[in-house]
Design a protein that fits this description.
The complex is a heterodimer of chains A (582) and B (610). Chain A has 18 helices and 17 strands. Chain A is of the alpha/beta class and 582 residues long. In chain A, the strands form 5 sheets. Chain A has a 5-stranded mixed β-sheet with strand order 2-1-5-3-4, sandwiched between helices. Chain A has a 4-stranded parallel β-sheet with strand order 11-10-13-14, with helices on both faces. Chain A has a 4-stranded mixed β-sheet with strand order 12-17-16-15, sandwiched between helices. Chain A is globular. Chain B folds into 4 domains: 92 residues, NADH-ubiquinone oxidoreductase 51kDa subunit, iron-sulphur binding domain (de novo design (two linked rop proteins)), CATH 1.20.1440.230; 141 residues, Fumarate Reductase Iron-sulfur Protein, Chain B, domain 2 (Orthogonal Bundle); 149 residues, 3-Layer(bba) Sandwich (FAD/NAD(P)-binding domain), CATH 3.50.50.60; 135 residues, FAD/NAD(P)-binding domain. In chain B, helix 17 links the parallel strand 7 and strand 8. Classes of the chains: A alpha/beta (582), B alpha/beta (610). The interface between A and B is medium-sized, with 34 and 28 residues.
């Protein structure tokens, strides 16, 4: 243990504790900006500088450890002046038009500048303006970037893709897509983790809300929404609502108030996915196809982009099932269009997803023209949904919890947990067990695949289904995924079935979810989903009566010709930029 | 599959490395008198080009400092700008993560504080007082302002006698300086920007070696004025020479049997052969200067008497006594100052050091003279004991190298702590306290004990070469101002309270170089002439060759070679060899003729008189 003094308070902390952590323990929060625990401890912003007695130059609190007898001042005149100057310097190269910034009110730089009472900036404004393809689902605004390096490190260390880099040196040093590429030519998975870890408004999703308003205003269009499972864990956060105060039925109410014709729960197609993918897995497993290489889940479009760019030779191991979003889009413009007697071209499908990659997925030409236009016309992130609620001046407190629309209304707890890492696997195993043995397992029999703690990694399990043993693995985060695939490639690991989610913790930690700087909420949100599952009337996808009805009326059976046409896809039918040589 | 690559340098890396070396040489060749604000901004931009871009203070702070410097340079600044600059620089110095940032800001801070007047002038007047007044770097840096491009051109054409005449316009010691000048002229030679400085001293050596005897110019008609010069060293003789050329009657008082001062009694023969020194002195005396030998001022004659007998008196007594170590037994037999040691050698009363161990204390040029002389006197082992490192020695690098080649032991980081004698008072050796190099103060690395025990250096002779002092007692009694051990004359060489008395050279500045003494003496000669009511001009009618256009392709510098070390340590003959004619032709052709090319053709290229 080490005893030191911070702002005249004597404290004792373990050896190796950083000054910032020690100060926090003493109830002294040291302002910081670039710091992200374990991910970005590079002391680039210099905001967390403190004065240490006996040292002329200031010391960064985030990456320097305490020493016995150290005397630290976190708010001395020198610290105050230098910290202000540093933030003013940063502001001189930041487009400070907060009124038109997506992160206004949730911007660490704005908060910091306000906290330091910076009311003017003596330095010349020098705004960098790099060109950017504004059609791409991920938008980077160089004018707002403060080069804190978080995006670089989250992509390098957590997602193992290295899409961003600190480019060039000297006067023109900046952040850009690595290797001199354009973002459209890069192997970006579109996970959006760089967005959710950006302290300012330099990174965001492409905003598609205006097109939604346009569709809602078009009397010829029947506007149908679907809402992904993970949305219910987080949409209320920016409004200060607890999970109890923010049931998903309130989002349905909000969308109806905005003019939606139908609102569905993507949990419905999650159940449909289980029917297709579960059956597909059993088919492949029983045929011995998974002896050497597993079948991978296919519901995460970030993961699909990853495997196509990093391990193209493994694409055939993917389940051919479309993602629940794309299945729903297809069903809306076929089965449901027929049901309500509306021409598919007059149906406008919008999905609300915790995800940026889903925007990319829905935009693919592959999914254009199967019926009428794209299967899913527009994808909104959770953040865009919240912005629509605000712009419609709807008070979330006054929303009523209303049911989703009928015909595709039923939803199982198994579909709900799709939003958490391990959820797809667990839901699939519940149904596979039934399909193999004809008996339902205990719904919680496979909880071994759930995340145990906030540190997401690789979870392995051997599951007994009837006479057979299924070797299963669950992984979230693309860095973890790369480790897992490398192990498979080297022959060190063998699985039959692998669930992959690009974002740490799964969709609940998705790149389209509300942003809380310095906090990781995926685990906590996942717990909400498991709670909802435990309280569900149905816990098995195969008991979703509306899914059963859909098969009866339309698809006949899982893996039928029709379902192959509408619910499955060819992952090789489109091109993804390949990973550069590492 | 291979995991690691063997590092090799890419083409652009090699090119940039080359450019860095070019830049280093360019900085070396920086002319004096540039606008400090402008230069600071340029330095800052180089520094900013080196930022990796990681941290805010360096990446943004430096460019904002550069903006503020632009504001100063372009007339948009006021006092608040300077305050913001200072604060910003300090903030970067405090909070940058690595030296790339904090040292860059530190440069701006030093410039802002140290050159405050220049910044103020920019913001107040909106303009800069700096002009390019010294277009010929070698001439600007030669204290005596010798016409260097002129004589190099003459050497190039083989007009050696004219070269000597031209040099003597500003410096009557061409031969002496050809051997031992510290050549500050070469430091910022513009040729550095291409490859390396011209070997200016080497070319002067060619001129003096090839010219033979060159008579001095005619003196001006007698003025009837009488001037006494006290001290026959390079300073005194320089003043005497020019005053005589101006037509005044000059008498030099010298306490020693021969003229030349430290040139004769301090600098060993192997560096400056006495017969070659006599070449200079002979030409000086040919002008008709009277010399009184064996006259010590204060003993044989007083300043007051001189003032009564002469129209003007010049004090150029040099710095001929020594500083002491402050150790017990310093008066023991075998312990002596370098001044005394070298003077005895020059007098021909050198001690026989055959088979003895000698320790010389100090790291300056005099220490090098002492060790090399001791070696030539037959010492079995000569050690140079210095408290700092080799790199900190003030001696010319060439001298240190030559001494090392001659087998001198360099005992660095050893501070003398005690002199040991036996019961009969006979010197046994020197105790030294081992030192470690430490913090840098005022640009010089300091030392402190490294914790090891004192070491013993057995020796029978100790020579202290730790600095010289000036015998000021008599002058102080006579009312000549003395401060901090030197005669404190004005920057014109006179005294406000004693009209007609002048002083210059080492006695007024402390020990310095021969060319500085010559430069001071030249200025004082002009001032004495003015004081006596005249305005004689010193000129030279040698016509200087017209410069030719050259492409100035990079070409190596011809260095003077030296006699083999093993051979030269056995005698006191000159160590350095001269250039051949084809070498001197090539070397002279390397001169960029800054008197003509560049600013020189417009202004300040040549001063033909003074």
């Amino acid at each position: 243990m080490v005893t030191l003094t911070i702002d005249r308070k004597e404290i004792t902390v373990p050896d190796g504790t950083t000054i910032m952590k020690a100060a926090a323990q003493a109830g002294i929060p040291i302002p910081h900006l670039c710091y992200l625990k374990d991910i970005n401890e590079v002391a680039a912003c210099r905001v967390c500088v403190v004065e240490v007695e006996g040292s002329e130059r200031l010391v960064t609190a985030c990456n320097n450890v305490v020493k016995e007898g150290m005397v630290v001042y976190t708010n001395s005149p020198k610290v105050r002046l230098d910290r202000r100057r540093t933030v003013q310097l940063m502001l001189s190269q930041h487009d400070c038009k907060c009124a038109t910034c997506v992160r206004s009110g949730n911007c660490s730089l704005q908060t910091l500048a306000n906290d330091l009472n910076i009311l003017h900036n003596p330095y010349t404004e020098m705004i960098e303006r790099q060109p950017w393809d504004m059609k791409f689902p991920l938008i980077r605004d160089s004018a707002k970037c403060i080069k804190c390096l978080r995006c670089v490190n989250i992509c390098d260390k957590v997602q193992s893709l290295g899409i961003w880099q600190l480019e060039s040196t000297g006067t023109i040093s900046t952040i850009n897509v690595s290797g001199g590429r354009k973002i459209t030519d890069a192997d970006c998975a579109l996970c959006g983790q760089c967005i959710t870890h950006c302290p300012v408004g330099a990174l965001r999703e492409r905003d598609d809300t205006e097109n939604v308003w346009k569709a809602l205003a078009d009397p010829k269009k029947t506007v149908i929404f679907q809402i992904a499972p993970a949305i219910r864990t987080a949409w209320g956060e920016p409004f200060g609502l607890t999970p109890q105060e923010a049931p998903i039925g309130k989002v349905a109410d909000a969308l109806k108030q905005m003019g939606a014709d139908y609102v569905f729960d993507t949990v419905f197609t999650a159940d449909l996915t289980i029917m297709e993918e579960g059956n597909e897995f059993l088919q492949r497993f029983l045929a011995g196809e998974t002896k050497n290489r597993p079948m991978f889940t296919s519901c995460c479009p970030g993961w699909i982009r990853f495997i196509k760019s990093q391990y193209p030779h493994l694409v055939s191991c993917l389940s051919t099932a479309k993602s629940p979003q794309q299945m729903f889009g297809a069903v809306m413009k076929s089965y449901f269009a027929e049901k309500i007697g509306v021409a598919p071209e007059n149906i406008f499908t919008i999905s609300i997803m915790p995800c940026v990659a889903k925007k990319g997925e829905s935009n693919m030409e592959l999914y254009n023209g199967e019926y009428a236009g794209f299967d899913t016309d527009i994808v909104l992130t959770t953040r865009e949904l919240d912005r629509m609620i605000r712009s419609a001046h709807i008070d979330p407190m006054n929303l009523q919890e209303i049911p989703f629309d009928s015909v595709m209304q039923a939803a199982s707890g198994a579909g709900v947990i799709f939003g958490a890492t391990g959820g797809v696997m667990e839901a699939a195993l519940r149904t596979a067990h039934f399909l193999v043995t004809g008996k339902d397992p205990d719904p919680d029999a496979f909880k071994v695949v759930r995340a145990k703690a906030e540190a997401f990694g690789i979870t392995e399990a051997e599951i007994q289904i009837g006479a057979a043993t299924v070797r299963a693995a669950v992984v979230s985060g693309l860095g973890n995924t790369r480790r897992l695939i490398e192990a498979i490639e080297r022959g060190e690991a063998h699985y039959d079935f692998v669930e992959v989610m690009a974002c740490p913790g799964g969709c609940v930690g998705g790149g389209g979810q509300p942003i809380h700087d310095g906090e990781e909420r995926a685990y906590q949100r996942g717990q909400t989903l498991y709670f909802l599952d435990s309280k569900s009337k149905i816990r098995f996808s195969h008991y979703n009566k509306d899914v059963a009805q859909l098969y009866k009326e339309y698809f006949e059976a899982p893996l039928s010709h029709k379902s192959h046409m509408l619910l499955h896809t060819d992952h090789k039918a489109w091109e993804m930029p390949r990973a550069p040589k590492r | 599959m291979s995991r690691l690559e063997i590092p090799t340098k890419g083409r652009s890396e090699l090119v940039i490395e080359g450019l860095y070396r070019d830049l280093e040489r360019r900085i070396e060749a920086s002319p004096p008198g540039l606008c400090p604000v402008s230069v600071t901004k340029a330095f800052l931009e180089l520094c900013h080009a080196q930022t990796c871009g990681k941290c805010v203070p360096c990446r943004i702070g430096l460019v904002q400092l550069s903006n503020l410097l632009s504001d100063v340079l372009e007339g948009r600044a006021d006092e608040r700008t300077l305050k913001l600059m200072e604060e910003t620089a300090l903030s970067i110095m405090d909070s940058a993560d690595c030296a790339i940032g904090y040292e860059a800001a530190g440069m701006v801070y030093k410039s802002l504080i140290g050159c405050r007047d220049d910044y103020e002038q920019h913001i107040v007047d909106g303009r800069c007082s700096c002009t390019y007044s010294q277009p010929v770097p070698c001439v600007a840096l030669c204290p005596a302002a010798v016409d260097i491009p002129g004589y190099i051109a003459l050497v190039g054409e083989g007009r050696y006698e004219d070269a000597i005449r031209l040099i003597r316009k500003d410096n009557p010691f061409p031969t002496t300086c050809a051997f031992i000048c510290e050549h500050p002229c070469e430091a910022r030679c513009r040729r550095n920007m291409i490859d390396a400085a011209v070997n200016i001293r080497g070319l002067k050596r060619v001129a003096v070696d090839k010219a033979g005897h060159v008579a001095p110019p005619e003196c001006a008609p007698d003025t009837g004025k009488k001037i006494a010069v006290v001290g026959g060293g390079p300073g005194g003789l320089t003043s005497a020479y020019y005053l005589r050329l101006m037509g005044h009657a000059v008498t030099v008082y010298e306490m020693l049997p021969k003229l030349g001062g430290m040139l004769r009694y301090g600098i060993p023969n192997y560096r400056l052969p006495k017969d070659r020194l006599d070449d200079d002195i002979q030409a000086i005396l040919e002008t008709g200067i009277e010399v009184k030998h064996g006259m010590r001022i204060g003993t044989d004659i007083t300043i007051q008497q001189l003032r009564e007998q002469y129209d003007a008196v010049l004090i150029t007594i040099g710095a001929s006594s020594s500083k002491t170590l402050g150790l017990e037994h310093e008066d023991a037999e075998g312990v002596m100052s370098a001044v005394k040691f070298l003077r005895d050698v020059a007098h021909g009363t050198a001690p026989d050091l055959t088979g003895l161990e000698v320790a010389v204390i100090g790291g300056g040029n005099v220490a090098m003279d002492a060790v090399r002389t001791a070696k030539r006197l037959g010492a079995s082992k000569v050690s140079c004991v210095y408290r700092r490192r080799m790199a900190d020695m003030t001696a010319l690098p060439a001298e240190i190298e030559a001494a090392s080649a001659e087998g001198i032991e360099m005992l660095t980081l050893k501070a003398p702590s005690a002199i040991e004698v036996d019961e009969k008072g006979v010197l046994k050796g020197l105790w030294v306290k081992p030192q470690m190099i430490s913090s840098i103060k005022d640009g010089r690395a300091s030392v402190k004990p490294n914790g090891e025990e004192d070491q013993f250096i057995p020796c029978q002779v100790i020579v202290a070469a730790i600095g010289q002092a000036i015998e000021t007692d008599h002058f102080q009694q006579a009312g000549v101002p003395v401060a901090r051990g030197v005669i404190s004359a004005s920057r014109f060489g006179n005294f406000s309270n004693i009209p007609g008395v002048f002083a210059g050279g080492d006695c007024a500045t402390g020990p310095a170089t021969v060319i500085r003494a010559i430069a001071a003496a030249k200025a004082i000669a002009a001032n004495i002439d003015e004081y006596l009511g005249f305005h004689h001009e010193i000129t030279c009618d040698v016509e200087i060759p017209e410069p030719e256009h050259r492409d100035n392709q990079p070409c190596g510098r011809v260095d003077l070679t030296e006699r083999e070390a093993g051979e030269r340590v056995h005698d006191f003959e000159a160590v350095e060899n001269c250039m051949t004619e084809c070498e001197s032709c090539q070397e002279a052709s390397r001169c960029l003729r800054c008197d003509h090319f560049g600013y020189g053709v417009f202004k300040g290229g040549r001063k033909t008189l003074w």
